[in-house]
Amino acid sequence: MDKELKVAIVTGGASGLGLATAAKLVESNNRTIIIGRNEQNLQDTAAQLGELCSYKVFDLNNLKAIPQLITEIINEYGKIDLLVNNAGINMKKAFTEVSDEDFEQIIQTNLTSVFVLSREVVKVMLPTKSGCIINISSMAAQYGIPYVIAYTASKTAIEGMTKAMAVELSPEGIRVNCVAPGFIATDMSAKALDSDPQRKQKVLSRTPMGKLGLPEDVAEAIVYLASDAAKYVTGVVLPVDGGNSIGF
């Protein structure tokens, strides 16, 4: 194994934004470990991306097992240079219909697991005084969107956590940044928007560029923030949204 290659982890790396990110990281010559729940999808993705890509089948809701997962990765690869916290779930429900369990589930997957995974990765980054963590936010943290209360709470918290982590960890050589994708053409968004033409029209009308983004657009931003080109950039939330967050 080439010790010079950087080692990157991408959660939810077998589909959508995670897949596009893993592909760009491999293209940029990073040893990339994708994490997800569906072994078949992970296997297919790793085969598609080639020998620099490997995978771990893991459910991030299993918080207690995360330290063991990181120990395994360190034993196998020797280090972790980059963590992309991409895995997340959404739920569209009227505010009063969101149960306690619904809310807890979204918070656990989108926020608590990101915290636990980041904490364990930071423990192995600190001794080397280097490393990079990139979190994924959403337009839901930039302005109010109806019917996604738990998702909005989780993504707004991710942005606050990014800043707090950056302030604490940057003096230790670890940069922490966040990307806030706008409306990107993925299977997940297609399902949501195609079934709701009114919502789709609203999205496009308030996006100055007038179109949906591509998963690659988000991946490029992540690869930039992870690279030496961004060595003096920490604690930012970078919208990749065609102007949606400032649109009228």
What does this structure look like?
- This protein is α/β, with parallel strands linked by helices and 248 residues long.
- The chain has one domain (7-184, 215-239): NAD(P)-binding Rossmann-like Domain (Rossmann fold), CATH 3.40.50.720.
- The chain contains eight helices and seven strands, in the order βαβαβαβαβαβαααβ.
- The protein has helices at residues 16-27, 39-49, 66-77, 100-125, 149-169, 187-194, 197-205, 215-226; strands spanning 7-11, 31-36, 53-57, 82-85, 131-136, 174-181, 237-240.
- The protein has a seven-stranded parallel beta sheet with strand order 3-2-1-4-5-6-7, sandwiched between helices.
